[in-house]
Structures are given as C-alpha cells and as structure tokens.
Amino acid sequence: MVKLIRDFLTVATKPCRAQTAIINRDLDSPLSRGEALGLGFHLTYCRNCRRFRQQVMRLRDAARSLEKIELDSMPSDVRLRLLGRVNAGSDNPPSNS
Amino acid sequence: MSNLSPDPQNDRVTSEVQSLDAARIDVARWIESHGDAVWRFALARTRSREAAEEIVQETFLAALVAHRRFVGASSPQTWLLGIAAHKISEFIRRARRGRREHPIESDIASADGGEDLPDSAESAFGPGGKWRTGPKPWKFSTLNGAMGAHERAEHDELRRALVDCIDRLAPGVAETVWLRDILGMPSDEVCKALNLTATNLWTRLHRARSALRLCVERATQEQRSEAK
To answer: Which of A61, B122, B180, B196 has its CA 20 to 30 A from that of B186?
Structure first.
C-alpha cells in the first residue's frame, strides 16, 4: 500500500518530459500498479502526452508489421560459401580466448 | 613412432582438434537453423546482398571463434542476432564514414546518457519539462482488424516513413530498435544479445522512439504539404 502510494505520487507529479520516458518504458516492462495509476492520472488531463502515447504505440504496431515483409532466405550459393568459410583452414584454428 | 606410448603433447593436440571439430559442427547447425534469420536481418538493414553476405560470414566466423563462450545463457538465435547487430552497425558506421550525414540520433555512447533525448526530440520540451511543441495529430488511423484500401495506403505510407527514419538512427541504436520493436524480441533477450542493462535498454529505446516519432511526423507532414 505504501509502495502503491509512493509510486503513484512519484509518477503523477512528474513533468511531461519524464512522462514520455515512462510511456516508452511501459512498452518494454510492465509498470507497477502505482506507476500505472500515476501515468493514467497524468494522461487524464494531458492531451499532448495522450497523443504521444497513442503515436508511439501506433509506431510500434507499424514496426511489428515490418517483420512480415517478405525477404528471401539465404541463397544457396551464399550458404555454400559460408559453410566453406566455417569449415576452411584447420591450419587456422580459432583462438582459445 | 608408436601410437601406443601415451604422449601428453599429442593428446592435447587431439583434444583441441576434436573441440574445434565440435565447434564447427555446432556452427554448421546454427547456420542451418538460424542462418536465414541472420541473413534477413543483415539484408534488411544494408539492402545489399554483398554486404549481407559479408556480415553473415563475419557473424558465423565470430561465433566459431567465441564458441566456447556461448554457454547457453541465451538461445543461440539471440546470441547470433546480437553478434550480427554488432557486425551490421560496424558495417554501416564504416560505410557512412566520409559521407556527410546527419543522423537523427547522436552516437551510441551518448544515447545511453541518462534521460537525455536527441536534440530534435529534446527541443520539443521547454523549461520544467513541459511540452513546447506537442505531438501533432496524425492522419493514420489505429490498426484494428480489416483494413480498407484507404487504411492500407495510409499504413504503407507510415511503414515507409518509419523505415526511412530507422535508417537515420545511429548505427547500434537502429539495430536495437530492429531487435526489440520489429522482431519483437523480449526485452531481457535484447539485453543479453547486446550486453545492455535493462536501464540502458529503456533509455536507448526511449530516445530512439521519441526521435522516430518526431521524424515520422515531420516526414509525413512534409509529404502531405508537397502533395497540395
């Protein structure tokens, strides 16, 4: 309970610049309950941060959709040369470091 | 010379050759299972088959050399994509050297410095951390299920702008965004792959995404006014 209130107050009292860092962190690691409430409180009255959050989330969706862009798999000649390089040179063994 | 007499020197050589062979077998397996992922990552970032081939070779040769250090703390793919990320950023840094370019994000070293945003995104805030120029409304509708022709065109425009803007990120930062936001690698895996602390990663992604948001906003607004 103490942590909840402390996290809430820590986040809720921060300026917009710091809110944007919290919005971005939220995309990578879940905020604590208090932090999430603090951010939510800020967002209720800050249109700019609301918009920032919406847009970085939209960008993240667009980024995820880029993974599905069709790229050819490794061509067989490239693969053969690669295997050749890896198998080549027993006289040139990898260092032990 | 008889093979029957045990020769410690010979044994050592034999065991080294064996472990080298074991390493080559592992690396050949990794090429089989993860070669395509490394190839696509390198090809997408460099857009050149020659460059991608060079990076793929460097990545797997480095994996062979460092084979003993791979102890299974992360999955082979995470580890290999981490090596590839370094090779890609080295390659792009070399390619850019001499060319006058203005990345939207300063170099990696400063990218990890505190909460600081790159200049362009930083200037959006005034004294006391208040917005000076807030985000402008975007025309791009949110993604939800079925897209009509209009939404599809908007989405493609946004994706194109995003790719262009990612290309303008500093090498190293761009690869971090690629692993986390495009490939969707979990944060802790990205930290292992790139040898970053969680805080380093958040700071780097915060700066990168803020810079990308502004870059995309400017690119798509300019395009709209050009079209008029």
So the answer is: B122
